[in-house]
Design goal:
Blueprint lengths: L1 E6 L7 H13 L3 E5 H9 L10 E3 L8 E6 L1 H11 L6 E5 L9 E2 L3 H9 L3 E6 L2 E5 L8 E3 L2 E5 L7 E7 L2 E8 L1 E5 L7 H4 L11 E7 L9 E4 L4 E6 L4 E6 L2 E6 L3 E6 L4 E6 L4 H8 L12
Parallel strand pairs: 1-2, 1-4, 2-3, 4-5, 5-6
Antiparallel strand pairs: 7-20, 8-9, 8-19, 10-13, 10-17, 11-12, 11-16, 13-14, 14-15, 16-19, 17-18
Helix pairs in contact: 1-4
Keywords: ATP-binding, Cytoplasm, Kinase, NAD, NADP, Nucleotide-binding, Transferase
Pfam family, one: NAD_kinase
Cofactor: a divalent metal cation
Length: 294
């Protein structure tokens, strides 16, 4: 079996867990390739053994069977650029904090990886957004696993976000901005702004205004096959677009179109885990002091 290992940051206490992962893979005779920038980081932190013990990669191909992401949910978001052309399952190992997507806790690495290598896991297919704009400084296509957000820049004044849904005018949101979220992103920025939680298997997206001036402007759930289009009216010459962790400043004349991407991300979950269990654990549902004796 051939696997990829990727991370973005090195947390002070994560070294021993990375060593556990690599040792478990070695014990199972797994061919390990480490993303080249992460490889250099691990070398500098003296995490790796012999310098030539591991191969590195810049890009992936269909020969990889698993992609190990070490960090938090942000690291998995960055992994999209590596796996978007290949249906390689992503194993998220949470060495960060909350971790909705990176569901394997660092304390559980050895038994969890053993289960995964024995194919004792389930796959959750996650839809993505494909974002295109008329701005010259924006990529031809940009993909979001969580959300695309439009927001004001360098002003305290609200902006007006004219919104079309399925080629029909929907509303002009007078607000600090708007969030277009996937089911995966519904537990992130959108949730913080009052948006709904959407289960991953739902074929829906959500529009959530950010601090709208019109109190009757509510979040909207719609079928994910409907395209959306946005124009922004602002007193300033530009505004901001964020696509997951990528942020762009664009001219106020920029038009934005968003469609469902033509590929999905495959996330590995242990059979003992579920989305509903994650909600209870991460959002502390049911953790009410009235349920406990003092």
């Amino acid at each position: 079996m051939k696997v990829a290992v990727f991370g973005q940051f090195f947390y002070p206490d994560s070294g021993k867990y990375i060593k556990q992962l690599l040792a478990t893979l070695a014990q199972n005779s797994i061919e390990v390739h480490i993303e080249q920038d992460y490889y250099q980081m691990l070398l500098e932190k003296s995490i790796l053994g012999h310098k030539n013990q591991y191969s590195t990669f810049e890009n992936l191909d269909s020969s990889f069977e698993l992609f190990f992401s070490l960090g938090g949910d942000g690291t998995i978001l960055s992994a999209v650029d590596f796996v978007k052309h290949y249906p390689i399952p992503i194993v998220g190992i949470n060495t960060g904090r909350l971790g909705f997507l990176a569901s394997i806790h660092k304390e559980e690495i050895q038994p969890a990886i053993t289960e995964i290598l024995n194919k004792e896991y389930t796959l959750s297919n996650r839809s993505l957004l494909e974002v295109k704009t008329t701005a010259s400084n924006f990529p031809e296509s940009c993909y979001a696993l969580n959300e695309m957000a439009i927001s004001r820049r360098n002003t305290t004044s609200m902006i007006t976000v004219e919104t079309w849904l399925n080629n029909e005018f929907l509303n002009a949101y007078w607000s600090d901005g708007i969030i277009l979220s996937t089911p995966t992103g519904s537990t992130g920025y959108s949730l913080s702004c009052g948006g709904p939680i959407i289960t991953p298997e739902s074929n829906s997206f959500a529009l959530t205004p950010i601090a709208p001036h019109n109190l009757n402007a509510r979040p909207l759930i719609f079928p994910d096959y409907h395209p959306t289009k946005f124009n922004v009216k602002t007193r300033e010459q530009d505004f901001m677009i964020s696509v997951d962790s990528k942020v762009f400043t664009v001219d106020s004349s920029t038009e934005i179109t968003v469609n469902k991407a033509n590929f999905e991300l495959r996330l590995v979950s242990l059979k003992s885990d579920s989305f509903l269990q994650t909600l209870r654990k991460k959002l502390l549902w049911g953790e009410d002091s009235r349920n406990f004796k003092h």
